[in-house]
Amino acid sequence: MVEFSMDAIVSFRSFMADSPSFLPAAGAAIALFAAKKVLDRFDLMDKICNRTYIYNICWEDPAVDHQVLNITHDDVIFRICSAGDIVLDYAIEGPSKIVVCDMNLHQLWLFELKIRMLRDPKLTYEEWWGIWGDSDVETALKVWKRMRHTMSADGRKWWDGRMERVFRQGFATTGSTGFIVRAMLPLFMWVTGFNLREWAESGFSHEYMVRNARVLENSAKWFRWLFPGILAPFAGVPANQIGPEFYTTEFYEGILKQIFLDPAFGKSNYFWRFYCERGYKDQTCCPRTLQREHFNALKENSGCFEWHHATVQETMERVQAATFTKLVLLDHMDWMPNEMVHNEWIALQRATVPGAKILWRSAFTHNDDKPFFNNLDVNDLTPKWYAKDRVKMYPGTFLSYMPRDDFPFIDSEPSLCQKASFLTKVKTSAKMILHPIIGSGADEHGDKMSSFYASQASGYDAVREKMLVARKEMMSAFGPIKVGHTWLDIGGGTGRNIHFMRAQLDKFDTIIVLDICPELLEIGEQSARQSFTKAQCEKIKWVCADINNPKISEELAHVSWNRTRRGFDTITFSYSISMIPKWEDALYSAKSLMSDQGRVLVSDFDTYTLEGNSFKDFLIHTWYKQDGVRIEAKTRDTIVNEVFSGSEFTTSVARMQRKLAGVMIPHFVACCRKSTVTTPGGFRRSLTPDLLDFTSIEEKKSD
User: Fold this and answer.
1) In whole angstroms, what is the distance from residue 234 CA to residue 48 CA?
2) What string of DSSP letters covers 93-158?
3) Which helix (H) or strand (E) holds 673?
């Protein structure tokens, strides 16, 4: 459904008034709006991928990649294929091997065509430029006939029916991005009153664009209306990658001005000139892969490629362990839920050497919406490199080194002892709902918890499995698990969180489940004995105590035989902070118990709005208050901006809503960890003044 506000109507009238012809432009806008309504009815990106490639050239700047990656002859590189021209650029440096994958088979057939041509011993530079620079159909057909038999059967069949048409109409206008150039660029030039040909004939003069800068402002207004709903699928941008900024004129205006008001645009920005001129017209402003001086190296290294029609995770699971030294993941993780990202990185860790360098981009300037990224020391390269990126497609550029210690493996399947019959679930749910009416009215916090949970203990885990949905997201941020890991689960009750980690329990030294309700701890201990080995159970201590006890540190050290004197590597609050009366004190207590590289994780119910002051927030606050659950926006703010503020800590908050009985319920996951850095060898170190961040390390190496 499309909703129009008064501001939107005023904005629409404004940009229509700025167009040279109101009525034709209005007609075009109405036609495009109608097209959007039609396109909303089916997955356009899926339709495109089933018919052709999306990208005819890659939408990243390889110059930035080279500066960040520092490719050497020993490197084994992985990259998502896209149009394939950037991995060809990598190949000029002569790495040992390059592996690519793509889910769009047509992208791989485009890439394969380039590789098979390069492997043709008769291919000359003039032919290479004629095909991919000039889009010369005669040259393309001549080379195709010569090397056609080397293509895969499916790729040969696909190109047989398209080779002549693609290069006759112009390669720059093919694929869905090329369709935008062919169909939409003339419309944009018309409605904005800009003479693109005149600008090109001026050599893409900076002075010319400065004089006509208003075209960028007008274009931004059109993009604000057209891109999110109509153009995005053709540009390979799915709906879940479109944030609120995509609906503002300022967002597009800023990007357009950075690109087209760059004084060096005409001399170096071959990416956007490719679309403006419908191809590469100038050998002095084109990719390295089309420059004569690199042609021989490109041909010589064309044998280093391997390609897969698969997801990134599937590709990682196919290759030999510890294969890759450098990886470029583009922006595909923007599209994925946290669980999928987590599973992919487990596969990535298996397939890479410790300390492998991993570069990715994003339509967003942070990764906070996915708790898994808290397992990585992520270096935000955006402040340094975005200004130098000629494409300006991605506001976020990030780098990380693969840690040596294993990522947490989250086994979401409940243990058998945590399952319950339908009747038990009904009884437990009834007791939970009726508790405000039939509760004992105890005064002490511990007595209140026992009163609330004692009658529910047997069916507690089974009923709450679908209620406390952010637990698994929280566990995803658990942190790399080293041998001798220590973990304190505050308000852990039945120990459900331990069962998430069942595959890696042998790595732990000590796990303490602390709760003020003995009935839940008893159930948890029974479940552990039924589910884990004797040796694993001996690592787990079940402690009935208050986290706000002034002597809690000594008490925990005593029950763990002093193994936790150094502090805990991971401390979790799983839907417990909202039930602790002195919850701020509990957070400070947890902070005091952290190890040198420790982290505190909190998952709990959240407010619907960021400020927590809407009517829906009032309703959820009132409903949960009956059971002693406190839901306030203040919780998030206190965690991040008070208790764990300062440069000593790295913090993030992921907010989400999940459906329960047909109602969307808000949750959050907060991760607060002592700042660390992962070195190029994959070792994680505490961030001390003498240990610089990723960028500084790279700059030292370069110097």
Assistant:
1) 8
2) T--SEEEEEES-HHHHHHHHHHHHHHT-TT--HHHHHHHHTS--HHHHHHHHHHHGGGS-HHHHHH
3) strand 663-674
User: b vs e for 273-306, b when ≥16 Cβ sit within 10 Å of the residue's Cβ?
Assistant: bbbbbbbbeeeebbbbbbbeebbeebbebbebbe
Q: Which of 3-17, 94-108, 301-315 has the lowest mean pLDDT?
A: 3-17
Please answer whether residues 93 and 112 qualify as being in contact, where contact means their C-beta atoms are separated by less than 8 angstroms.
no
CB 221 within 8 A of CB 249: yes
List, in order, residues 6 or more apart from 134 with CB less than 8 Å away. 279, 280
Q: What is the pLDDT of residue 2?
A: 36
Distance, in Å, from the CA atom of 613 to the CA atom of 629, rounded to the nearest integer, reads: 17
Write down the pTM of the prediction: 0.89
Name the residue type at position 2.
V
Residue 357, beta-bridge partner list: 326, 401
Contact in structure between 216 and 192 (CB atoms under 8 Å): no
State phi, psi for 576 to the nearest 5 degrees: -115, -30
E-only strand ranges, 331-474: 352-362, 379-380, 396-401
Summarised one tens digit per residue, pLDDT across range 380-415 is 999 999 999 999 999 999 999 999 999 999 998 877
Statement: residue 89 has pLDDT above 90: yes
Pairwise CA distance, residues 49 & 175, whole Å: 10
Q: Hey, is 307 helix, strand or coil?
A: strand
For 603-622, b/e burial (b = at least 16 CB within 10 A) is: bbbbbbeeebeeeebeebbe
List beta partners, residue 306: 99
362 torsion bin: left (phi>0), alpha (psi -120 to 50), beta (else): beta
